[in-house]
Amino acid sequence: MLAAIILVLNGAFLPTTPAPRRLFGYVMVPLVPVVARIADRVTVNGDDVMLVRGTHDCIFRVGSPAFRCDDGAPRSAGVAPFARDGIVFVPIGAVARALGGSVLADARSGAVEIAMPPHWAVVTPAPFDPNAPHVVPTQVFTPQPGPPTPQVMVSGDPRPRRTALPATPSRVPGG
User: Fold this and answer.
1) What's the mean pLDDT in 50-63?
2) Under CATH, domain 6-115 is a member of which superfamily?
3) pTM: predicted TM-score of the whole model, two decimal places
4) Closest by alpha carbon to 12, among 38, 41, 32?
């Protein structure tokens, strides 16, 4: 009896439903969720499956073991992608290599390790060195405030109040 296929993507376990299948010695995986995690964009148009990751783009055809990538030259996947119950299965080895990654399969354990390069290069800055020459800071343009706006100054007799003061009625005694 064959062991269940376990997918590992960049060191992390990748659960799949439906489960991957073996077909003529190739591991076939569903487009969703496996290939959707590897590729930036997955498009299915009839029998054509277009995969895009970064600068790599490939077109697989259901029922044909040949596929085309960036250069347009036909390549062989070894086994044709197929559709079962509305789910498209593709050979993971051909897909990963076409999109710039690599695949390593262990037949005894049933593990398939997929290694995909990162999308962006991550660079950490050099640590601060107080002995290194420093760049002279450039002057930042800061506008100077203009002269103050003249204010009208009123002095002399106080002006009468224009708003009425509320008055409370007084009680009239005996009333």
Assistant:
1) 92
2) Copper amine oxidase-like, N-terminal domain (3.30.457.10)
3) 0.65
4) 38
